[in-house]
Amino acid sequence: MKEFKKFISKGNVMEIAVGLIMATYFGAIVKSLVDHIVMPPIGLLLGGVDFSKMKFVLQEAVAETAEGAGDGVAEVAIQYGVFINTILTFIIVAFAVFMIVKGYNKMKERMEKKEAEAPAAPPAPSKEEVLLAEIRDLLKK
Predict the structure, then answer these.
(1) How much is the pLDDT for 78?
(2) How many domains does the chain have?
(3) Alpha-carbon separation of residue 30 from 50, 102, 104, 133 (angstroms)
(4) In the prediction, which pLDDT does 48 show?
(5) Long-range contacts of 48-54 (CB under 8 A, 24+ apart)
(6) What is the CATH number for 38?
(7) Beta-carbon contacts of residue 49 (< 8 Å; ≥ 6 apart)
(8) Residue 137 domain-assigned (yes or no)
(9) Are 75 and 26 in contact (CB under 8 A)?
(10) Mean pLDDT of 108-123
(11) Position 130 in a domain
(12) Which of 17, 72, 118, 132 is most solvent-facing, going by the fewest CB within 10 Å?
């Protein structure tokens, strides 16, 4: 239990948790962008196609009988339109993550370059210089 408390109290765990929460909502925003903003105009350009409704039906739905004996069967279909939306969502999220990582790496390189370019502190005086400075100060007195 002590080891778990030590692990949980580290800053990295909190950063990972915040990152996970942000990524979840970022994914939801991108999904909404694809489903509600990107795909409707594309569908309109392609003749009024609604990608979310595109599917290949393997078995039609069968309604229940009049007696309600529970003979009803749900439709079995391959929903390739939803799959297309998911692929576009993935591509947009992957591109956004790529851009974030690329920006982070550039920022990190600039910081490392600035640190390397920073002037080094002047070296400490040698023992001889310290001794000569003391002699000079004594001679001035």
Answers:
(1) 93
(2) 1
(3) 18, 19, 21, 69
(4) 82
(5) 50/81, 51/81, 51/82, 51/84, 51/85, 52/81, 52/82, 52/85, 53/81, 54/79, 54/80, 54/81, 54/84
(6) 1.10.1200.120
(7) 43
(8) no
(9) no
(10) 81
(11) no
(12) 118
How far apart are alpha carbons 40 and 87 in whole angstroms? 16
Closest CA to 84 of 51, 43, 46: 51
Residue 108 lies inside a defined structural domain of this protein: yes
Closest listed residue to residue 77, CA positions, set 53, 93, 95: 53
- On whether residue 134 sits in a domain, the answer given is no
Vertex 33: Cα angle to 54 and 87 (nearest 5): 50
Across residues 110-129, what is the average pLDDT? 82
Residues 75 and 55 sit within 8 Å (Cβ to Cβ):
no
Give the residue numbers spanning the domain of 8. 2-62+74-117
Q: 94 or 116, which is more confident?
A: 94
Q: Considering the entire predicted model, what is its pTM?
A: 0.58
Asked if residue 84 lies in contact with residue 49, where contact means CB atoms within 8 angstroms, the answer is no
The strand ranges marked E within the chain are 56-59, 76-78
* Residue 106 pLDDT grade (very low, low, confident, very high; cuts 50, 70, 90): very high
Distance of alpha carbon 87 from alpha carbon 39, whole angstroms: 12
